[in-house]
Each structure stands twice: as structure tokens, then as C-alpha cells.
Amino acid sequence: MSQYLLIDIGNTFLKWGRYDAPAGNGGGPALAHDHAIAFGRVLLDEIASLAHDWSRLPVPKRVVVSNVAGTAVLNPLLHALETWSDTPRIRMIVSRAEECGVRNGYLNPAALGCDRWAAMIGARAVIGPQPVLVTVCGTASTIDLLTADGDFLGGNILPGVGLMQRALHQNTATLPDSPGEYVDHPRQTVDAIHSGCMNAMAGAVERLYRIYHPAHPALKCIISGGAGRALAPLLTTVQSSYYENLVLEGLYQIALSMRD
After folding, report:
1. What CATH number has the domain bearing residue 219?
2. Which letter does DSSP use for residue 241 in this model?
3. Is 259 inside a domain boundary?
4. What is the Cα Rg of the chain in Å?
5. By the 8 A CB rule, do 240 and 232 touch?
6. Active site annotation includes 260
7. Cα separation, 179 vs 12, whole angstroms
8. 136 and 74 part of one domain
9. Residue 119: CB partners within 8 Å, gap ≥ 6?
10. Residue 161: Cβ-neighbour burial (10 angstroms; 0-12, 13-18, 19+)
11. How many Å is the maximal CA-CA distance in the chain?
12. CA–CA separation, 217 vs 235, rounded Å?
């Protein structure tokens, strides 16, 4: 069976997945999590180590990459992919005017981050034809509105929870850069910082939901990314669900749509 290698290069980590291509028509949309074989995650300066992990897997039929980390990561990635002598041509995705049922409403469609584009394509595959706030919690967090018809109307970018915490440490004299826990009534500084940053993120999602909901009464929220699992329970006024990696799901949909 054909396999796809999908690669999501963010600002901090490279996340990858190996997936089988669907066999025949299963009667519904083919989703990545139903065809998963292997996953991995490395820091950007550890990309070279992927050659060892990938060498144990068969050569993929397709390699599809979302990269928001710039050109510095490309050489180590290409070297890692040389673990196969017959690696197929790599598709580095860019945001398009329309793809996989999603239409790009950015003033300059190509200027939209390709990770956001892939995440919305992934959300459309998972949620189906209904309005959704696509919320991805990474180094930067994004909250994008996708209509029931697949139109991306616009979105917001804000610092991720970890970036907020580091900014407080770096720009104050005494606030620590140490892990904390979310609690409703923080009584130590590390918990106050973590809880404040989580509440800031939750507040942004809930505010945007209130703004968009009147025009989209069936609006739901799908959350992804590193801090997303902890964010979902804090959204008390929003219908939300968690999906581990919407970018890889979107890359899977793009891989399915490619012609040989």
C-alpha cells in the first residue's frame, strides 16, 4: 500500500507522520488518524537525527511539507530525506486561492501562513461543512474563521502561552521562567503566570466566538497544537473539540488531492 510522509515544520518543532493512502471508497472522508503508521517530533536543531528514524520505513509515495521556519531548516531536512535513494519529489505547500474545499479570503492569498492554510483544510475534513473557529496553539497561536461553505473570512494571531510566559520573564526584573499549573485562584507566582496566560488565550477564543456566533449560529471551535489540550477545558462558553495535529491532517488531504 502507498504511504505518505507528511512534515509540519513550526517555529520550535518539526512534527512528522507516516500514513497509508486509503484503499478504495470507505463511504466517508478519509482522515489521517484512521491511516496513521508512525509519528515523531524533534526540535529544529535535531532534524538530522530523522534520517535514522526514517531509514527503517519504506520509501514514501509522496512527501508533503509545511514550513514556517524559513530556509535554514531545508538543508538538514533534504539530507534526512536522502535516507532513500529514490525519494519522490517533495511538495512544499503554499497557501492558494482555493484548495481541498477551502477558499482563501486573505487580501493576498499567498501571504497566509502555510501552516494556517493546512490547519483549515484539516479542520474542514474533520468538522465537515459547518462554521468553525480553527484554533492552533503553538509558539504563536492562531484563531481563524471558516464558514460552512469553506470560506476563510480572516483570523487573528497572538503569542502562544509559552511565548507569553517567556516575555514576562525577559521583560521584568523578578518574574521567573519556571513551570506553573493552571488554578482558578493562583497563590504562587509561577501558577499566577501560567494561569494568566492560559486565561488570556481562552479569553481571546471566547471573545472571537461571541463576535462571530450571531452570523454563524452553528459555530464550533476545533483546537490543536501543544497547549490546545489544556486550553479546551477552559472554554466554558464555546462548543469545542481537540484534534492533535490539524496541520498534518491538512497535509494528508493535500496529499490525497495530488496527481501522480
Report:
1. 3.30.420.40
2. E
3. no
4. 19
5. yes
6. no
7. 18
8. no
9. 134, 136, 142, 144, 224, 246, 247, 250
10. buried
11. 61
12. 17
Question: Which residue's entry shows cell 452570523?
Answer: 215
The model's confidence at residue 259, banded by pLDDT at 50, 70 and 90, is confident
Give per-residue pLDDT as tens, 143-155: 999 999 999 999 9
Are 142 and 66 contained in the same domain? no
pLDDT at 25 over 60: no
| pLDDT at residue 105 tops 70 | yes
DSSP E strands in the chain: the ranges are: 3-9, 13-20, 36-43, 62-67, 90-92, 98-99, 102-104, 132-137, 140-146, 151-159, 220-224, 240-242
Mean pLDDT over the full length of the chain: 92
Burial of 214 (0-12, 13-18, 19+ CB in 10 A): exposed
pLDDT at res. 27: 54
Which residue out of 115, 151, 177, 184 is catalytically annotated?
115
How far apart are alpha carbons 49 and 247 in whole angstroms?
22
Residues 87 and 117 occupy one common structural domain: no
Query: In this structure, what are the phi and psi dihedrals at residue 131, rounded to the nearest 5 degrees?
Result: -70, 145
DSSP 47-58: GGGHHHHHHTSP
Alpha-carbon distance 29 to 61, whole Å?
20
For 91, phi then psi, to 5°, come to -100, 115
What is the chain's length?
260
Distance, CA of 138 to CA of 244 (rounded, Å): 12
Grid cell in block for residue 52: 535514522
